[in-house]
Design goal:
Length: about 650
């Protein structure tokens, strides 16, 4: 029996990245088993990794609709269902093959027939092991490589689930570690499956190792982007011969960088609604827990909600500045009340103001509007919480100093003054300030000045580890450290670009919105073909047929959100009236239409963790460049997670991320 590769071509469609992933799982995998199966309902069996792949892309209702009546864990005891067929979606590992053979071999297999789909290419030895079992072979309905081994975390984002990439690739102990190569190999395979799914063959650009001269040793950690690019290239070369209809010439761009390009983005306070929710609220992934009135109305009960694309209010507001989001929510609530007599009566009884609790009570009084009021009250509550935290933690003062440091409007004097006078600022926020300062002024930490600043901020030795380990993310140093102090050399060219440049023509009405990630600038340069040749290499030269930009002059994209030109100083600016309470639904209807007739895709992969500001930039640039920008990374990190991971880089014994928290 031959090993089939995936065969459906995605050419010519305009679905977004997550939709393509979802459709492959539902139709190419689950639905394809209907052809030769007499069983109406099937069992879907997955391992711990593939169940996450599925859950990021599909809902349980989607899976059930494709004829799956039961979802099982490969490694848990399962009840025999000899009258049903089974679909196995598993990684091609020895352990998984052993479990599969155990299920299907012998006189009494667990299932009638098995349709096996591997998440990535399977070794010939493992296929031979399956074929060797004569009792299993007749019971196999399909044996196929899906080549889909990533988490589609966003309509334009994915991760390879390498939460410990910083530790395994960039720590002092990474050199010579077996985890180094294992991590890079798996990461390369998983990135490649993105291109198998999208039917894209990229030009592979990567950040080159920053070797100073012939006498300077190039460290393994500085070679990470180079090695990963080579690994991806090798996988793609195999796809060209093994996957039917895989492109033979370049169709898109891929840029591979690591966290050394921008150490500030993972630490600085971001002011978009999405970033603030994940930074300041105790979310479990995208899960938010809030209290709602119980059915009898006398008590409250906890309710879990997911802040995801199916929520039109979230989809509309997630990339908006927190002040803009708050204003828009206020306008939506006002508009909703003005258009509903029952809501107006409720408002009159409560003295004219409508609180979150009032909105929740309206759900019971106005059942026909329950879904809209539910979502509106949820986001009014969240925005209220965020604004309270911003006030309580003096975050606008912290954020102002962070951005002043980055753009060169503040220095050591202002930082010291802030640490001395702002006693209400938390230890974590002082640590983040000092990490930003260290990234911009490494020479200040070459003597005891750094220790004195840490002492002034009241930080612990544990916090110092996070600052110290930032040097592991960077290239070789050009000069020797003095006085036994460590050196924080974050980039060979940092001296020339100590502070980020202001962007011209992109003024915002909102305070604290000056900051932008370096990745945004790099993507724009890549799109124009202007990446610095001395810093970025390409694995392949462009084919004569390669065109990065859309060729049609009638390219249609939705207009970018208009930017108000008023300057605000220290207060949030108030925008013009936003839309009514019903308008968010239109966001869902038109969310994917923006990608029709776009130019060729740009993929960017960040080794060591991407940030929400970088994901936001991918969305923003898709509209600006008229090219779908897809951001990939080893993980998506919020500031507390990133700082925890920096601390873990110095821990010798095996710990989990939960063992070491800020």
């Amino acid at each position: 029996m031959s090993l089939d590769s995936d065969t459906s071509s995605q050419g010519g469609d305009h679905r977004n990245f997550r939709q393509i992933t979802r459709d492959r799982l539902l139709f190419e995998m689950l639905r394809s088993t209907r052809k030769n199966s007499k069983s109406t309902w099937k069992v879907l069996i997955m391992d711990k990794f593939t169940v996450k792949i599925m859950s990021y892309a599909c809902k349980m209702a989607d899976i059930t609709e494709e004829g799956v009546s039961l979802v099982e864990d490969l490694y848990k005891r399962r009840q025999p269902l000899p009258s049903l067929d089974a679909i196995y979606f598993i990684q091609p590992t020895k352990e998984n093959i052993v479990m599969f053979l155990s299920d299907m071999s012998g006189r009494s297999p667990l299932y009638k027939k098995a349709y096996v789909f591997f998440s990535s290419p399977v070794h010939k030895e493992l296929v031979a092991q399956i074929k060797k079992d004569s009792s299993v072979l007749p019971r196999i309905g399909a044996l196929s490589e899906m080549n889909l081994e990533y988490f589609a975390i966003d309509s334009q984002g994915f991760t390879t689930d390498h939460e410990r990439a910083l530790e395994e690739l960039f720590s002092e102990n990474a050199e010579g570690s077996h985890k180094y190569n294992a991590c890079l190999n798996t990461m390369a395979t998983r990135i490649s499956t993105v291109f198998a799914s999208m039917r894209e063959f990229p030009r592979v650009h990567y950040r080159v190792a920053k070797t100073i001269n012939a006498s300077t040793m190039t460290t393994l950690r500085d070679l990470v982007p180079t090695k990963l690019a080579a690994g991806v290239w090798n996988c793609l070369a195999k796809y060209k011969t093994t996957i039917p209809e895989f492109p033979q010439t370049e169709t898109c761009e891929l840029l591979i960088v690591d966290r050394s390009i921008d150490q500030i983005a993972p630490i600085i306070h971001e002011w978009t609604y999405d970033a603030m929710c994940h930074d300041l609220l105790c979310l479990d992934g995208n899960k938010y827990v809030h209290e709602v009135p119980s059915k009898n109305g006398s008590t409250t009960e906890k309710k879990e909600v997911l802040l995801e694309d199916h929520d039109p209010v979230w989809l509309e507001l997630r990339h908006a500045h927190i002040a803009d989001a708050s204003e828009r929510l206020h306008d939506k609530m006002t508009n909703f009340v003005s258009k509903n007599k029952a809501a107006q009566l409720h408002q009159a009884r409560n003295g004219g103001e409508v609180s979150t609790r009032d909105l929740q009570k309206m759900v019971q009084a106005l059942p026909q509007y329950s879904d809209q009021i539910d979502k509106l009250s949820l986001h009014v509550e969240i925005a209220g919480k965020l604004n309270n935290i911003i006030r309580e933690q003096c975050l606008r003062d912290v954020g102002q100093l962070e951005q002043d440091l980055v753009f060169g409007d503040a220095g050591t004097k202002e930082l010291i003054n802030f640490l001395r006078t702002q006693l209400g600022v938390s230890r974590e926020n002082k640590l983040r300030l000092l990490m930003i300062y260290a990234a911009l002024n490494p020479e200040k930490f070459e003597s005891d000045k750094g220790a004195k600043l840490m002492q002034l901020a009241g930080l612990s030795a544990d916090d110092m580890i996070a600052v110290n380990n930032m040097r592991c993310l960077c290239g070789p140093d050009t000069k020797k450290s003095s006085g036994g102090g460590f050196t924080l050399k974050f980039d060979v060219h940092k001296k020339k670009q100590a502070h980020r440049k202001e962007r011209t023509g992109e003024e915002s009405a909102w305070a604290l919105s000056r900051f932008y990630p370096v990745l945004e600038e790099l993507i724009e340069k890549l799109s124009k073909g202007e990446l610095p040749k001395d810093e970025y290499n390409c694995m392949n030269d462009p084919s004569p047929s390669f065109h990065g930009l859309p060729t049609s002059s009638s390219v249609r994209t939705s207009p970018a959100h208009s930017m108000r030109s008023r300057r605000t100083g220290g207060t949030w600016a108030r925008p013009r009236g936003s839309d009514d309470g019903y308008s968010s639904d239109s966001v869902l209807k038109h969310a994917s239409s923006d990608f029709k007739k776009l130019g060729q895709r740009i993929f960017v992969f960040v080794i060591g963790g991407a940030t929400r500001s970088e994901l936001c930039a991918a969305h923003k640039l898709s509209s600006k460049l008229k090219r779908e920008v897809i951001l990939g990374s080893s993980s998506l990190d919020d500031p507390p997670q990133f700082i925890t991971k920096l601390k873990l880089m110095s821990v010798e014994e095996e710990l989990t991320l939960d063992d070491l928290q800020i």
